[in-house]
Amino acid sequence: MAALAAQLRAMGAEPIVCGPPDPEFAELVSRAGATLAPAHTPVRQFVADALANRPPMTLPERAALVLKAQREAISAAAEGCDVVLAAGLFPSTAAARCVAEARGLPYVYATYCPIYLPSEHHRPSAYPGHPVPAEETDNRALWSRDVKTMAAVFGEAWNELRASIGLPAAQNVRDEVFTANPWLASDPTLSPWPSTQLRDVFQTGAWILPDDRPLPADLETFLTAGAPPVYVGFGSIPLEALKEAGRIAIRAARAQGRRVLLSHGWVGLALEDQGRDCFAVGEVNQQALFPRVAAVVHHGGAGTTTTAARAGAPQVIVPQIGDQPYWAGRVAALGVGAAHDGSAPTAESFMAALDIALGDDVRRRATAVAREVRTDGAAVAARKLLELFG
What we know:
Layout lengths: L1 H9 L5 E4 L3 H9 L3 E4 L4 H10 L6 H19 L6 E3 L3 H14 L3 E5 L27 H26 L8 H6 L4 E2 L17 E2 L13 H8 L5 E3 L8 H15 L4 E4 L14 E4 L4 H4 L5 E4 L3 H10 L3 E3 L6 H11 L2 E3 L7 H11 L2 H11 L6 H13 L1
Parallel strand pairs: 1-2, 3-4, 4-5, 5-6, 7-8, 7-10, 8-9, 10-11, 11-12
Helix pairs in contact: 1-15, 4-5, 4-6, 5-6, 9-13
């Protein structure tokens, strides 16, 4: 969203990003030259509360809380705006849809991963208490069933919110929010959108904010002191199990004679010892870093996957939640890395995945695919917004 805001600003628009007020996101939006209108809570606090189920509540109850709070935050942010573009967790985008409708503003829905949009080429996601039937193989039928599932999870809170701001009830919450013409902010090489009659999708390419920040001096010293290291980091995924996954990854890389660059991330990964072959960092410019590593070990977030692919860096993905298994599968299918089978690696399973990623064939393939990854997705989206609504 910061990347899109930067492009819109360069084209003469005045973008306002209603996003979480965590310091790193505030800095990101500021670097894009945009205005940050704080969302209802910092992401770190939201994730911690959701993982701990604090306070105790069901998914529909938590969705109702987010819907109401986000509606208030987005409504304040949208004051004086001409169009609302929404991306993110479903309750937040549903709140944005209500704000746009109440204010009579055009509305665009965007997502960064194809699996969240209806298509006969993949199955819908499951929700707690609403599993996707394993025996049903017709994806069209499953996506039709998904309308009822999302109504069961979000519909009551959605219509209560609509009634509270004077909007009529709407039964199909999914398609009201997704719209008939959603935008897909992912790279066509990394995550192509196969044609489907279930949705008319506009694929823009990934929205990438250029980053020209220099790497820290001590990191530069480490990088130039030896062979390219294996990068290990799990970004903003705070699952405690990833600490053990990180330890396994470090030991496996060192056992192969590789240096290691560890990213602390939100889970707080730490080195077991301070050997000269290891170095730990906080948040850094991955666009500058990844071309200089032997491989990128990560969780499979859309941003990390795209950045590593652009850099031509082989990848090992240890997927945890959400869309991460999809990105792991795409990396493996493209031959630019390895998808670990499951979220909890053993020394043997991770070593096998790392062996694949560090192979010469994968390195050559990663270099070739890097030339195919587009960098203009945010500009494409910005131009389309201004053509439609400017």
